[in-house]
Specification:
six-stranded mixed sheet, 12 helices, Uridine Diphospho-n-acetylenolpyruvylglucosamine Reductase, domain 3, Rossmann fold, alpha/beta, five-stranded antiparallel sheet, 11 strands
Length: 332
C-alpha cells in the first residue's frame, strides 16, 4: 500500500495502477505527455514506480502544431516533469489531412510516439486514457452502430506487429482522481481548448450526455460502460480464436484475392460468419465493411438466388460455383 502519512489517496491510486503494468517489465518505457492532468499524473506515478523497479522512463510530448503556441505548451509540459527528475523530449509531427482532424492528429501522434520509443530503446508506451475516456468511447461506438468491436473500447494493452506495446494503466481510474493527484503533486495542468469545444462529438458526450445519464439513471454509468467494454473485449478475443481456426479450413488464396467455401461459411452461426467476412476483407484489402455490405456478401452463401457481383471498397465479391471469390476491383 502507498497510504503513508501525508500521501494523497489520489496519488496512491494512480501509483498502484501504474505499478500493476510495470511490475515484471525490464525494458525502458515512454510516457505520452500532453501537459494535461491525466498525463502529468501518469508521468509522475511512472517516474516514482520506475525508479523503485530500476526501469528507465522518458516522457515524450507530441507537438502537433495545430494551435498557436503549441510549441510553448509542449515545452512547459516537458519542463514540468524534468523538474521531478524525469527525462523528457518534445517531438514535432506533421498532421496529414486524410480521415478528419481528430483521426489525423491521432495517427500523427502515435507515429511520433512510436518513433521516439524506437530512438529511446523503449519497448512500451504508457498512455493516459482514463475510465471516463473509456466510457465516452463506448457511448460513441454505440451511437455510431459500430458493433461489438467498437463497443469493446480501448484495450489496456495493445501489441502491434512492429513497434512498442501500448499500455493504458489508468482505464480503471477516474479523471477526477488524476486531477486530484495532479493537484496534490503540485502540477499546473494545461487545459486543451479542444476538450471544451462542443463541435467535437466526444466533448458533447463528456459535457452533456454522460451527466444526463448519471442524473436520470443514477451514479455509476461510466463504470458500467467500462465493464461492458471489458466483457466485450473478452468476447472479441474468443471470437478471434474461432475466426483464426475457421479461416484455416475455409479460406484459400485466389488470383488477386481470396476465395471462401460456401458450404463451410454457411454452416457457421451468423455472428461468426459475418466476422469471418469482415476480417478476411480487412486483412486482404485493408478496408472495413459496413454491416449492410457484410450481410450482402453473406447472402452469397446463405441466400443465393443468382445475384451478381457485389461492389465493395477496393474489391468485388461474387459467387463462383461452390465458393465466394473476393478480388481486387477490376480483376477477374
Amino acid at each position: 500500500m502507498d497510504r503513508r502519512p501525508g500521501l494523497s489517496p489520489a496519488v496512491a491510486e494512480v501509483r498502484r495502477a501504474v505499478r500493476a503494468v510495470l511490475e515484471g517489465r525490464t525494458g525502458a518505457v515512454v510516457v505520452a505527455l500532453s501537459g494535461g492532468a491525466d498525463s502529468l499524473a501518469l508521468a509522475a506515478a511512472t517516474g516514482f514506480e520506475a525508479e523503485r523497479l530500476g526501469i528507465r522512463v522518458e516522457a515524450v510530448v507530441i507537438d502537433h502544431g495545430l494551435q498557436e503556441g503549441s510549441d510553448a505548451v509542449a515545452r512547459r509540459a516537458a519542463e514540468a516533469v524534468r523538474g521531478r527528475g524525469i527525462d523528457a523530449r518534445v517531438v514535432a509531427v506533421d498532421v496529414v489531412a486524410n480521415d478528419g482532424p481528430e483521426a489525423d492528429a491521432r495517427a500523427a501522434r502515435y507515429a511520433g510516439l512510436a518513433r521516439a520509443a524506437t530512438e529511446i530503446g523503449a519497448d512500451a508506451v504508457l498512455l493516459g486514457h482514463t475510465l471516463d475516456d473509456q466510457a465516452e468511447t463506448v457511448l460513441l461506438g454505440l451511437a455510431r452502430g459500430s458493433g461489438a468491436t467498437s463497443l469493446a473500447g480501448m484495450a489496456p494493452e495493445r501489441r502491434d506487429a512492429t513497434g512498442p506495446v501500448w499500455l493504458r494503466p489508468l482505464l480503471g481510474v477516474h479523471r477526477r482522481t488524476t486531477a486530484a493527484a495532479c493537484a496534490a503533486e503540485g502540477f499546473d495542468a494545461w487545459s486543451d481548448p479542444h476538450n471544451a469545444d462542443p463541435s467535437y462529438a466526444r466533448v458533447r458526450v463528456r459535457e452533456r450526455v454522460l451527466p444526463v445519464l448519471e442524473t436520470e439513471l443514477g451514479p455509476g454509468v461510466a463504470e458500467a460502460l467500462a465493464r461492458t467494454a471489458e466483457q466485450l473485449r473478452e468476447d472479441a478475443a474468443a471470437f478471434q480464436d474461432m475466426i483464426d481456426e475457421t479461416i484455416e479450413d475455409i479460406v484459400e488464396h485466389a488470383e488477386a484475392g481470396i476465395s471462401i467455401s460456401v458450404a463451410a461459411l454457411a454452416a457457421n452461426p451468423a455472428a461468426l460468419r459475418n466476422r469471418v467476412i469482415r476480417y478476411v476483407v480487412e486483412s486482404e484489402f485493408g478496408v472495413s465493411l459496413t454491416r449492410a455490405q457484410t450481410l450482402e456478401v453473406a447472402r452469397l452463401a446463405v441466400d443465393w438466388r443468382g445475384q451478381g457481383a457485389i461492389d465493395l471498397p477496393s474489391c468485388t465479391a461474387r459467387r463462383v460455383a461452390a465458393r465466394i471469390e473476393i478480388v481486387a476491383r477490376g480483376r477477374g
